[in-house]
């Protein structure tokens, strides 16, 4: 591999998941050329965004849906007809790869962005050692880094002392490591339900812990039109105030899907209140009852990956960032794509068109 280089461009997009690719697509429709005017950086080894890192048993359909990228029809592919019997990570990687090729989106890989700094009236994006480029200077930065690299792990006394197996959703590779073990699954979202299902088939016992009682609704999908509007409004309010973003499931609840019905039939939806602390060999409840556990899966969600923006002074002490309609006030060249109200796959695509228009105005194009 040649030595990493310094590059310049009008726009640099950090992240080639759905949000980043959608913005790149709409910028191209406004005449900005990928690889020259627009540079797209991605930390993954290949196409697929965060999906390429998910466990092999996860498939599309059921509780996991993806909406098509803008212009995906031009590739002859659609997630609405994607195979549901193949690993989602493989399907999404293939579809995103075809999309990049069809629309001429030149993604530079692998590039792990360490920090973003001001450089006069421009921005300097600095990459970690081992990246395909060392730095990029641009008038506009679009941070589309998602959440996968920043799993949320709540504070828990004794966690560092616990000798059993601990994994987060991002580190989960499959049920096999939990065969024959007594496993605790922590979290109230769809991933937690998936782990109760998969791990429950091989573990000696699986216990479910959540901070609050989960809410189930009778719709087949997690985000109906009405629930989607409510979720977007709450996320938008938090983003505009610079507060840490609430989890989607805390807003929408869980659909009574075939997965939920299967777990109910198997007796695996007996939720326990969150434990108070961990010991060497298990956990202690708030009633001071010790429960032995061989493993704990932390399915406790994710935080937006915005640490690389801290040098700009836009990330507050609570770990939030003020974002209004995808833009950071006081930073006319800084945009966040797929953040807050744009996080769902529908709103991400719609917002990309608005973001591209605003970027063109900043550039005078």
From TrEMBL:
Keyword Disulfide bond in annotation: no
4Fe-4S is among the record's keywords: no
SUPFAM superfamilies per the UniProt record, alphabetical: FAD/NAD(P)-binding domain
InterPro entries in the record: Auxin_biosynth/cation_transpt, FAD/NAD-bd_sf
Keywords from the UniProt entry: Oxidoreductase
PANTHER family, per database record: FLAVIN-BINDING MONOOXYGENASE-LIKE PROTEIN (AFU_ORTHOLOGUE AFUA_4G09220) (PTHR43539), FLAVIN-CONTAINING MONOOXYGENASE (PTHR43539:SF78)
Full protein name: FAD-dependent oxidoreductase
Biological source species: Demequina litoralis
